[in-house]
Amino acid sequence: MILLMLRIILRKHSELDRYKHINLVQTIWLMIGCMCTLIWCIIGSVWTFDVKNQVQFNDIHKPNYCHPGPYWYAFVLCILWYFYVIIAIICIPYLWKWKKKQIEKDKRENPLYFNIKY
Length: 118
Fold this sequence. Notes:
The chain is built from 4 helices and no strands.
């Protein structure tokens, strides 16, 4: 919705200005989404790991009863999420280098389009 409004507002601007503004808005939304996901995972991990010793899997009538399937699914998912974050952080420099090489390649192959696009 925000991108649509931005496109309407920027329709009289040059293509380069539109591209820069839309790219900035997309980057901001991506960062907000990543931060919300990270915060949600940290809060979920704190709850999941803190109640591990208190969760009751056998007696359904106790107040701290939890079905073992969803609990262990959440437990494993939290652990896998942290592995994913570590792998993503390790890969960022390589992705950055690859992106720079792609930009340089685009500059050489089509300089006119590159000047409009970037």
